[in-house]
Design brief:
elongated, two-stranded antiparallel ribbon, 225 residues, 7 helices, five-stranded parallel sheet, binds S-adenosylmethionine, alpha/beta
Length: 225
């Protein structure tokens, strides 16, 4: 899979892209991630990328010209133009089913906003999907793009050491249950004991218990969300 990230701050991705699972996946050639700076597509001596909103209001907006030129340039770098995703607070809320959908794509192009966001014509001009990582406002799309990249990359076959682990994670599988409680050694910690069933070696009972716990955890979560 190829993921392109379009941003005014490519330096923010250093460390993130090289670390841990993602770094190993890139080295193994499982995912190809490229960064492109919107500023390289700005025109004029000041390489301006933002301007005041028509109609007034606070802050600056990303101008459509540099953003669209950058997206179209990036799309032309590979034979698959890719699915363009604009990171915006008001977009479709990211959840595991959207992550799964994105992970099936050959190529995605993530576009990070800044300032007060994008001129509305950007999405229309390139046929982009707008995606939000949650109902709060970040100062830029870079952290949101990292969230998308991390969640999508772990679903690419071969990225996780154990393929089964992604299937058992919260929000995965047909019921989209959250994971129930998990335990490791020691068997007793500060007077708190590991449930006896997990030490029984009886795999059927363990599976049934885990399912019950996941259903209960999912119900509990519904009451606090
Ligand atoms: N004026 C915009 C609004 O009220 O919707 C907020 C702009 S925000 C300060 C700047 C950029 O951060 C956005 O263009 C977007 O790329 C990114 N961003 C902020 N919150 C986000 C979220 N919840 N999900 C995805 N991207 C977000």
């Amino acid at each position: 899979m190829r993921i392109d990230i379009i941003t005014l701050f490519p330096g923010m991705f250093t460390g993130f892209l090289d670390g841990s699972l993602l770094g190993a996946a890139r080295t193994a050639g499982l995912v190809d991630i490229r960064l492109t700076d919107i500023r390289d597509f700005a025109e004029g001596p000041h390489r301006q990328v933002d301007d005041r909103p028509f109609g007034g209001g606070p802050g600056m907006l990303l101008m459509p010209g540099p953003v669209v030129s950058c997206i179209e340039h990036v799309q032309g770098l590979s034979q698959h133009a890719g699915h363009v995703v604009l990171l915006t607070p008001g977009g479709r809320r990211l959840d595991q089913s959207l992550v799964e959908e994105l992970a099936t794509r050959e190529r995605i192009v993530l576009v990070c906003g800044r300032y007060e966001g994008f001129d509305a014509r950007v999405a229309a001009a390139v046929g982009a999907e707008e995606v939000s990582i949650g109902d709060y406002v970040l100062s830029g799309g870079e952290v949101a793009a990292m969230v998308v990249v991390d969640a999508v990359a772990r679903l690419i076959p071969g990225v996780l050491g154990d393929e089964a682990s992604a299937l058992q994670d919260s929000f995965s599988g047909p019921d989209r249950l959250v994971e129930g409680p998990q335990y490791t050694r020691p068997r007793e910690f500060r007077g708190l004991h590991v449930p006896e069933v997990l030490l029984s070696g009886d795999h059927r009972r363990i599976e049934a218990w885990r399912h019950e716990q996941a259903v209960a955890a999912t119900r509990r979560r519904a009451t606090i969300s």
